[in-house]
Amino acid sequence: MAPIKAALLGFGTVGQGVYEALKTHREQLKSVLGEEVIIEAILVKDGAKKRDVDEHILVTTDFDEVLNIPDLQIVFEAIVGEEPGFTYLSKAIEKGCRVITANKVMFARHGKTLLEKAEAAGVSVGYEATTAGGTPIIRSISQLLQVNDILSVEAILNGTSNYILTNMREKGSAFEDVLKTAQDLGYAEADPVNDVEGFDAFYKLMILSELSFGSSPNWDEVERKGITEVSSEQIEVFTRWGYKVKHLARIRSDSGLFTASVKPVLVDSEHPLYGVEDVQNAIMVETSLAGKVTVQGAGAGKLPTASAMVEDLTYVLQSHSGAAVRKKQSVLKVDSSSSESGSSSLVGEYVVIGSSVGFNGSDDIQLLKQDVRGDLVYLLIRCHEETAKSLKANSELVVYEVAGKLKPAEVKVEDRDLVLQRVINL
Ligand SMILES: NC(=O)c1ccc[n+]([C@@H]2O[C@H](COP(=O)([O-])OP(=O)(O)OC[C@H]3O[C@@H](n4cnc5c(N)ncnc54)[C@H](OP(=O)(O)O)[C@@H]3O)[C@@H](O)[C@H]2O)c1
Description:
With 426 residues, this protein is of the alpha/beta class. The chain has helices spanning 13-24, 26-33, 63-67, 85-94, 104-121, 138-144, 159-171, 175-184, 193-196, 199-213, 232-240, 302-318, 385-393; strands spanning 4-9, 37-43, 58-60, 72-77, 98-101, 125-126, 150-156, 223-224, 244-254, 257-267, 280-287, 291-298, 333-334, 346-354, 366-373, 376-384, 398-401, 407-408. The protein is built from 13 helices and 18 strands. The chain is elongated. The model is unreliable at 336-343 and 413-426 (pLDDT under 50). Bound molecules: NADP nicotinamide-adenine-dinucleotide phosphate. NADP nicotinamide-adenine-dinucleotide phosphate is lined by residues 10-15, 43-46, 49, 78-80, 84, 102-104, 129, 133, 300-301, 305. Residues 10-15, 43-46, 49, 78-80, 84, 102-104, 129, 133, 300-301, 305 line the site of NADP nicotinamide-adenine-dinucleotide phosphate. It comes from Fictibacillus arsenicus.
């Protein structure tokens, strides 16, 4: 057999990582694939920039030059944004290339189309690197959990947010200070909006939804919140009560009703994602047979992301069709107002923060804990989801859910007398 010819689209952090990994793991790849993988061309935006690559490699800004390489088998894509990545990969697939991408923004929007094109062309698409970097979640779901139904996915999908929340808690620092450190360390972009406002985690959740349920919610209906409203004072109270605040991306299917959100929630030490700290990512998948399966690892970075792309090589070369999408269930409805279930007969736990918080005339609120910090009252309560919704709708209150605490309504809400002296009408 001849060497396997490959091209790299993009030569930034990830592209350079793939180039390096192919060199340092040449022998391992050869023993797995039976042939060497040779990078023939690299596509970049700025043709004038000096690139430290082998002499034989064509470095170009013209995608057609890449596509015209005879017997090109593999196209790695690590450029930014929906376009031109989608168009380039569509053309590569039409030409019979196997493609491997790290581009989550593009894949969240166009992944389904690319997979369909690949199926029609009889080639495969690798997209492990789009979601949680080097953490092998995509192929764990698509190949190792094919018979199980996926009931829910709950994940920490953005390392920058997780790093900031971890360090705010451990060092007692303010959000802005930890963000600055994260930027100095290269964990956060100069423009951190995608990470700290939850967009990055949202794209990854949509990719996981397509994979797990064969569909994804209407994007506008998914509740998306970042971590910018989490304060160090809040974290101090949560810590005293035994909780950590985590930025969780969640989607579940419950009797045909689907619920999705990306937002900060509280987790206690029983929760599988409680110990996931710093820049780590983790994905917990609740399955029909295997129960809860959690995969944890580096969510980003040059070599972990390159690892996912290079590992995808074996998959795309050894499989003949790109249809790794599970199509077992379809999304019938999305209830974005509730984070864990669409049913209103559930009781959950919530922390409510307000300047003079109280509950008047509700039989549905059980006070579990309270604390006062300056003008702010912190209450840990148990109540029906419906009641929590009305609390969340009150713009004077900040409400955090405690993850994993929703129980059927038969769980009696009692001790109403414990509820509050401070009263305002909600
Ligand atoms: N960084 C990570 O840890 C990570 C992890 C998982 C997934 N990803 C995803 O991987 C992709 C690449 O990320 P990165 O961090 O490597 O980005 P990056 O460092 O900014 O590099 C982007 C590369 O793409 C090239 N490029 C941009 N627009 C192009 C265009 N229109 N045509 C041709 N080339 C173009 C750039 O060319 P020039 O060099 O000429 O500017 C650069 O080489 C993104 O989609 C990102 O979301 C990144």
